[in-house]
Each structure stands twice: as structure tokens, then as C-alpha cells.
Amino acid sequence: MARIVSVGSALQDIYLIDHDDFIGTKKGEESKLEQINIGSKVDIDSVSFEVGGGGTNSAVSFARHGHETIFIGNIGTDPAGQAIERLLDDEGIDTSYIIHSEKAKTGVSIILLDSKSGERTILTCRGASAKFDNLDENDLDLIKPDWLYMTTLRGDMETILRFFEKAKEIGCKVMFNPGKLELKENKKLLGLLDLVDVLLVNKVEASEIVPGKILEELISHLNSYVKTVIITVGPMGAIATNGEETYRFGIYEDVEVKDTTGAGDSFGSGFLAHFAAGNSFKDSLIFGAANSTSVITKLGAKNGILDGSEELHPMTIQKV
What we know:
Layout (H helix, E strand, L loop, with lengths): L2 E5 L3 E8 L6 E3 L2 E3 L13 E7 L1 H11 L3 E5 L1 E3 L2 H12 L8 E3 L5 E8 L5 E6 L13 H5 L3 E4 L6 H13 L3 E4 L3 H4 L2 H7 L5 E5 H7 L5 H9 L4 E5 L5 E4 L4 E4 L13 H13 L5 H15 L21 E3 L1
Parallel strand pairs: 1-6, 1-11, 2-9, 7-8, 11-12, 12-13, 13-14
Antiparallel strand pairs: 2-5, 3-4, 9-10, 14-15, 15-16, 16-17
């Protein structure tokens, strides 16, 4: 197995779950939450406290697969931070590189979940996960990881660059799943990509980085920067290439969606967890799809994460 460092946010996710008050109203191509009147009191069905954040979601995928996993990120010294650290400890994840903020509270997301459709609205206070410039890339010298898995750092391109350059200096491979704030820094993002071994984006994100409208165009253009590229298309599946093989595939299976939180994290980290364990590119894509499918059938971003021992059924995946 590999040694994998996951860098990114750590949040407490507080779910407010109801069957009729959080239903969206269609306004053109968008749905808007308009059922709640200002000043009113709303009775909801249930509340659930979970742990979220792209950095911790990915770390759990790696750890359950049997990899030696280290999480690097920021939390507060409050009960929410303690809950996050306790979960990571229970999953066997090394938490010794977490930075505990004395000033900022742990980030919190309030998730309004419609229990009928699985649709949700997320209100987030990033707290200690709002900034990452205090993270030290020299920690990688001590850890000596095989892989660095980088999720969004809220557009902090300088910190991302420091970590990527250090990873290359020590011979560590890099997988990158940028967020919307990194995508706004298009020129800087393109400049980072020659340090990336695997890039994971969705179709909209891909079109913000390189020109193109159809998947084949987008992946071809991104492949000129990064050898291995995965572009997801939500329920339509994904397209992926490692420069030698290219695959187009749909969802792993049709399931009842309970909560889509963490679906992207579970796909990307599921792929790397399987790939870093020595499995083929194709089989790792299938496992990523299965991991993501399992996650959306459970409440929270981590409860459905697979451990790699599951027997997966065949799925439609075509070499193109």
C-alpha cells in the first residue's frame, strides 16, 4: 500500500432534514428555495451531525482502502474540531500535521436536505478552513509520501504551488481536484498543471480551463498539460485518459439518491485509493464510480465510502 497525504478543508456538516420545507421551486433553469417565510418558525424532521470537507472526505477513502494516510489542514480548538479529529483518529488517519487555530473556529456547513429528492442547499462558514497560507510544504520532507492529493485551498495558488514543487522535489506524485476559486485563477492554474500527474474536474470546470464544448475536445486539450485527466459529468458518468487509454463510462448503477454531498470527493479519492493499491487504470475508474455511487445512498460524505474489499459488479465502460 501507499503513503498518501490529503490536503484541504475540514468541516462539521450539520444536516437539517425535512420532507416538505426544503423543496426547490423552478425558476428558469435553476431551482430556488422559496418556501420559508422570513420571521417564521419551521419544524423539521431530524438533525444529523457529520464530518465533511474535501480534505477529510478524501483521507477517509484512502485510509479505508488500507493506505497510510495523513491529513493536513486547519481546525479550531472547539467541539467541532474535536469531533473531526476524533473521527479521523477512529479511521486510522495521522492527524499530527493538523494545525489547531486559537483564533478561528472550525468551519461549519449547514445543509438543508430535502429527504424526498436528496437535493440540498449548503450554507457554509469556512472558519479555520478559509485560509491555508499557514500550511507548511516542508512537512512533506518528514512524511515522504508516495502521493499528494490536493483539494481546493480556496484559491490560494501560492500555497498550492509550494506543495506541488515540494512534491516534485521529493519524487511524490500529485493528484489535483481544484475548486471554483482556483478556476478563477486560470493563468496560474495552467502554470501549475505541469506539476500534476492526475487532474480531476467536471465538464463545466474543464471548459473554464481550456477551450472546447464536447468531452473529447476538453480531455484532449487538458491532456496536453496533464498525462492523466478525468472529467466527470454528474449522472452522465465521466471520460478519462492516461495518455494511452481513454474510457467513456456512465454511472456505476442506478440507485435511490439520499444525499449527493461528497460525491465528487468520493469518486476522485476512490480512483486514487484503488490505483495506488496497484490496480489498473480501468479498474480504478470503475472503483471510483462505485465509491461515489455508494456515498450518495447514505447521509453524509463519508458513511458510504467503500474499503476496497467489496465485490464489484460489471458496469458499462467503453474504450474510445
